[in-house]
Structure formats: structure tokens, C-alpha cells
Amino acid sequence: MQARTVDVVVVGAGPVGMTAAALLAARGVGVCVLERNATTSDEPKAISIDDEALRVFQWAGLAERVLRVIVPGTGTRYYDAAGRPAFQARSPRPFRFGYPFKNPFAQPDLERELAAHLREQPGVELLMATEARRVGQRADGVELQCRTAAGEGFEVRGRYLLGCDGGRSRVREQLGIGMSGRSFEQVWLVADVTGDPHDQRYGMHHGDPERPHVIVPGRGGRCRYEFLLHPGEGAAGEPPRFGLIRALLARYREITPEQVERAVNYRFHALVADRFRAGRVFLLGDAAHMMPPFAGQGLNSGIRDAANLAWKLADVLAGRLTDAALDSYERERKPHAQATVALSARLGRTVMTTNRRLAARRDAVIATTLRTTGGRAYLEQMR
Question: Angle at the Cα of 357 (from 356 to 363), degrees rounded to 5?
Fold first, then answer.
């Protein structure tokens, strides 16, 4: 097979990689997207898109497609240790970026819309079931040795490469870039289910120190439940027992095995890549940073990566900027990612604590804060 030559190669057709490709295509950049899986994901991993991300989709010409598959959200309701509503954080009005702050969605729906959009763009080639096996760099570009699922090998050449291939990034591994931070010992059960009775348009964070948990209703009866597991209830990476899922959900609903779309025992990570750029290769999304879910910023941070980098690449390729301008990507995005990871971990420690004394102190501080006009606005408007 003849070598392909494009402006930018994107490894990974998840939401971040496809968003980056769409942003580049909107600026006239030729893009080849490589994805080792045969289809877009059928697993509902990320579940919340924020207002900044929706604005980025608007820049890429994707807003109408994405709005089809989200639930325009009304924020998050937080519950105290006794299960009473403490406050509800909503989008400020008027909307900061023209969209609600927090919007539930199902990742398979989003990925299908993104892929359909890319296939309509004349300057984009989306190659599924294609693995980037080796990455090489030259002074003027990158070379990727690729192989299809059928075993056919070929080469892709580009001026730049975006590694958007997730937390176990092969691109990052081949570049020899490490990650700094920590992984948490606590194990959470994450279950995505169908046929759910929750019809709220907000997430629910239950700060019960006995069993911290999160509920995020989605579209068409979908809902995500996240429960902190006690010792002995399950290990990270092993499939959760259906009996445990049923027992944990019993206070909210009855469930059958067929109604469980996805269930995993998961250990959260707070990690940031030591470098976001190596020569002509850039890391975006989970390849660059992984964070706990409590701020709802994992995917959204990856979309910010794409928004930061895409216009700069387009201007460098068009001769309006020099290559040195691309160094600003790491200078701008890495500190922001580090701060967001730290915020996510801090929220988890506070909202999802298992320490009863800390939970009581948390609830008292919230109650006191809500008695002031500024404090109430700070919490309820997600400031």
C-alpha cells in the first residue's frame, strides 16, 4: 500500500482525537485519524460535557450534531451525610459561553456523531481497525508504521502527530515520556444502566461517609451509578458481581443483568505527563493527563487541549506562525491540567470522604457558607 502523506496525523479516534481532527479540518488542514478498534466505542465512559467544550464543538462546526445527544443539564445536587439535599450547583445565567455548564451524554452517541462529521470532511481520512505500531521523527515531520486488522502494513507521513490514544498511550510510551502523580487505593464500582426511573436533569453527589456515591441520569432511561466499594467487595480490574450491583442499586431501583450496559471496578488516577510535546509529537487528553471524575473534567480537559493546539498548528502550517509558537501548548495546558487534577482529587476527598468527622465539618461549613449572599452564589453558581 502506498504511503499516505498529510499535514497532521491523529492517533486515537476517541472524542478528543476526533474533536482535534474536526477543529483542524475546519481550518483547512489535511488530517489522517488512526484508530486500532474497528468501530467507535460502544462503552459509555465519559458522561458530562461542559459549556467550554460545547463552545469548542461550535468552532468545529459540530454544535448541532452534539446538541442532539446531550441532556442540557442543570448542574449537580449535593447531599449531606444524612442524605439531605445541601445545595444545587447550576449554570449561571446568562450562560457564560452560550451553553449550560454541565450536560450529561453517552459517549457512544457522541463518538458516532463525531465520526459521521469527519467522514463528511473532504480533508479528513478516518482509518478504523488500523494500529500505529511505530512512531519515528524526522527534522521536517513524522513517520508512522501502521498495520490494518487484516495484517496489511503501510506508512503514514505527516508534519505533526497528535497522540490522543488514551491513558495507556502507545505514542507516549514510544516517546519515553513518564507520568507524575498518584493512583488511589480506593476502588469504585461504576455501572451504566438502562431502563432507569431517574428523570432529573442534574447529577447527584451523595456525601454519605458510609457509602459515598454518585448518580448521573442520561438520555432515554440511561443512568450512571458510582459507588465506593468496601474492602473485600471487589478489586480494581475485576468484573463486578451482579449481586453486588443489584444490592447497591436496590434503594433506587430494581435491575436485571440485561439492563447493565457496562460495569467496572475502577481505581482512579491523578497523573500528568512529564511532557506534552516531544519534537513534532503532542499528547492530548488521557494520554497527557488522567484525573478522578469528581469535577467532571476528564474529557473536557482533553477538549481544551484540542482547542488550544489546533489553531496554532493550522497557523504554523499556513506560515502565519513559526514552529516555536507550538511550545506555548505545554506552557499553557500543563499547569491547567495539573490544577484541574488537583481540584478533582480535592473534591473527591471532601465530597466523598469516609471520615464521619470530616463529613460533619464539611456539612457545617456548607451550611454556614449558604447563609451569606456571596457564599451561596459561590456554591450554587459553580464559581
Answer: 90
The domain limits of the chain are 4-70+105-182+269-348, 73-97+185-267+354-383
What is the mean pLDDT of the segment spanning 110-115? 96
**Strand partners for 191:** 225, 263
Give the Å distances, CA to CA, from 383 to 138, 153, 214.
45, 51, 21
Distances (CA, A) of 113 to 57, 173, 274: 11, 30, 32
pLDDT (tens digit, 9 = 90+) per residue, 25-39? 999 999 999 999 999
Cell output for 60: 468545529
Closest CA to 229 of 244, 251, 249: 244
User: What tens digit of pLDDT does each residue of 195-222 get?
Assistant: 999 999 899 999 999 999 999 999 899 9
Pairing label, strands 141-148, 277-278: unpaired
Give the three cell numbers for residue 4: 499516505
Q: In sequence order, which residues have a C-beta less than 8 Å from that of residue 180 and are 6 or more positions away? A: 271, 272, 274
Count of helix runs (H) and strand runs (E) in the chain: 10, 20
What is the grid cell recorded at 64?
Answer: 448541532
CATH number for domain 73-97+185-267+354-383, candidates 3.30.420, 3.90.320, 3.30.590, 3.30.9: 3.30.9
Residues belonging to the chain: 383
CB 9 within 8 A of CB 32: yes
What's CA 212's distance to the chain center, in Å? 22
Domain 4-70+105-182+269-348 sits in CATH at 3.50.50.60
How does pLDDT run across 138-195, given as a tens digit for each residue? 999 999 999 999 999 999 999 999 999 999 999 999 999 999 999 998 999 999 999 9
- Is 358 in a helix, a strand, or coil? helix
Check pLDDT > 90 for residue 336: yes
